[in-house]
Amino acid sequence: MAAIVSIPEDSDFPLANIPFGVISTANNVSDISFIAISESIYCDVNIVAELIHIQPEKRCATRIGDHVVDLAAVAALGLFDGPKLKTEATRVFAQPTLNEFMRLGRAAWQEARAKLQTVLAAPSTSASVHTALVPLAATTVHLPAHIGDYTDFYSSREHAFNVGVMFRGRDNALQPNYLRLPVGYHGRASSIVLSGTSLSRPCGLIQDPVSKDVFFSESKKLDYELETAFFIGAGNSLGDPIAIDNAEDHIFGMVLMNDWSARDIQAFEYVPLGPFLGKNFGTTISPWIVTLDALEPFRVPQPIQDPAPAAYLKPGIRDAYDIQLHATLTPKHSSKKYMLSKTNFKYLYWTMKQQLAHHTVNGCNMLPGDLLGSGTISGPDPTSLGSLLEASLNGKQDVILSADGSVTRRFIEDGDSLSITGKCEKVINGKRIRIGFGVCEGTILPAKKFEFNK
Amino acid sequence: MAAIVSIPEDSDFPLANIPFGVISTANNVSDISFIAISESIYCDVNIVAELIHIQPEKRCATRIGDHVVDLAAVAALGLFDGPKLKTEATRVFAQPTLNEFMRLGRAAWQEARAKLQTVLAAPSTSASVHTALVPLAATTVHLPAHIGDYTDFYSSREHAFNVGVMFRGRDNALQPNYLRLPVGYHGRASSIVLSGTSLSRPCGLIQDPVSKDVFFSESKKLDYELETAFFIGAGNSLGDPIAIDNAEDHIFGMVLMNDWSARDIQAFEYVPLGPFLGKNFGTTISPWIVTLDALEPFRVPQPIQDPAPAAYLKPGIRDAYDIQLHATLTPKHSSKKYMLSKTNFKYLYWTMKQQLAHHTVNGCNMLPGDLLGSGTISGPDPTSLGSLLEASLNGKQDVILSADGSVTRRFIEDGDSLSITGKCEKVINGKRIRIGFGVCEGTILPAKKFEFNK
User: Fold this and answer.
1) Is A10 among the domain residues?
2) Which chain B residues are Cβ-neighbours of A364 within 8 angstroms?
3) Is position A130 annotated as part of the catalytic site?
4) Are B264 and B206 in contact, with CB atoms under 8 Å apart?
5) What is the ipTM for the molecules in this complex?
């Protein structure tokens, strides 16, 4: 499918993707009066934008190749003419977050994606759609949604086992609940940041494992966690669970996530109520939400679940997705990306449908924009571990990153950048299809000095 | 201090209180055009309201006795003429939540309280303020804030000890971290409901403690937790901790809270990541936020902390408040309130200042409207236990509620209503002062039938 702009062959964002996000531009090229004037004229937005002077406003967008498509502009052109969006598109896409679009439900998301695939294809059904195109470099990308609540699961059996072996030995590695339900906990929504945001190394109380002394320090065991997460689209009322057979209709789409973790702070604080300051100093997500409809060709069977889950968690046949996930580390003053992990979403023991059905089975209510994380995704072999905790055996051995062995890590050092990428690839009818997620990147800055008692 | 309306002697809401909340009325008597017309005329709002027809709109309010004072109306009258509110009052008090007012900071909250105490006193400095008065019975009270994130602490040493003894024995009752830092966890913000909201008994996976069988069931161990919680006013930026000496300036005020808990669901799920479905089906708060300024006369020393906390948690001299807290149970079809607990906020081992300093010491950011709970507040004697878990020794003994022993509970039964009340009382200069919180009430409905696989 050719598009109205050239899309690089290895792009994560072909017309088959159509992810959703939020952007702003220095000058609001999606301003309705401007669009009306320029309809059916192809504009170089970088030049034209200088002619108008409006405060940058966030609005919804999709991405094709290295261009962004301003959905508020597409809506202003009247191109969303289907039954679900005709009366809603102008309102929902002009919002500073995707929450109102998410609330409309899956039929509306499918209608938007299909329409965009038509008008952005070459030849397009709309000449004027060119006016909604902005080069990515001319935009600022923002958090795609207001995240009311954020939950993180622990759904990689390999990860849970590896961590369990370290702390409880092989025989008791998995807790009794692990194979019965998708264990999860509430995370902190306020500190979820967009890819590209730097975070300061956190400080907290740490216990010396030998002397048992407790002291205040910057974290010496700062780690990443390679995760994905999904956004809730339409929610449910308090008291009314989401049945697993309906769960996919409530899932708007997926992003990549790095659940930064201070292992030493976490180790002292987490009994009995779970992770807290070891996690809530920052969580990074990628900006473009990839829909389940885009991922549909990449469905694969999930791992066999034994014992069989309870009825409310009854799995389907192919509830996993074959998403290749890579994590790399770039040291300060370096441009090299050293591979940390090559893993895959399909390894997860518990599926997104099961996570959502479980989360609501007690009546807990979801709202559009809520975020549910997978937990660290580790695979079966040593190259597929999704955290340094596992790769360095909690700091007991070097993880060798460079071929010559000169670059090693046990945990993250100041100035390190972590990048997570994800993509699906498949040959369908002799043609390679690729759907990607872009990048989830963040850099760790040195701990801030802070005067506690003023 | 006499007020412009009669305030019952035992009211929680004298002029010395001035709590903040959110209300709506069937007809918006605070409509600005209406106020302008009626200025300086005393109106019976119940009669006049019928003459105007506007959609009910939420707006900010305070309460005196059995009347509500519509702050949007007070602002429209131009009565907030101080430096912090003069240009902001009309905007912030017309909002459907208190978040924008909270964001202004403590000087603005103090200015609002002082001004309201002046104009609502008899003789008032403003005749027109009568037009902002609404009888409580003519209003609907709403959640006072948009709660972005909700955290619950575990700060009652007595509660932690009692629970610890049950599950680990007396010698290991308190975890090693307990006396070092205020243990807490992230809760679910979406399911926080206002006093008066009924909740359905939750269902989930439960493990038989003897056979170890795991089965799906409605909770058989549904419990309440008597708590208080405080709202964040002005927040902090990600990466910048709040120093304990500044913490009070970030605390907008307090409410009562019932952290409903399904002990059997919680027991199976909570290792290693903490409480989840056992808690997130519902949390009830009282509607009127009582400021720290109103509570100032009731400051008392907090418990002695040994070992001395880390520098960032350094306590003041009188960081606790003498707030008497009662929990009562009313069975279905009964009007009797049986006493469950008489406890006090002052028993808490960790103070609100310490909770907030701890929560942000790693750089975690707070936003206006975030809610931080105390954890169950138990006192030193058997009548001051803040949960049925403790009073019934996890269901092993009856808790006798009625004098004749005919009404007992081990856990909450369908149809039971739980009420929490709180008040401060003191004689100052020969006059009794009382500051109260109103009520935090909720009823448990039978579990809903749900078809899991459609």
Assistant:
1) no
2) 188, 190-191, 277, 280-281
3) no
4) yes
5) 0.94
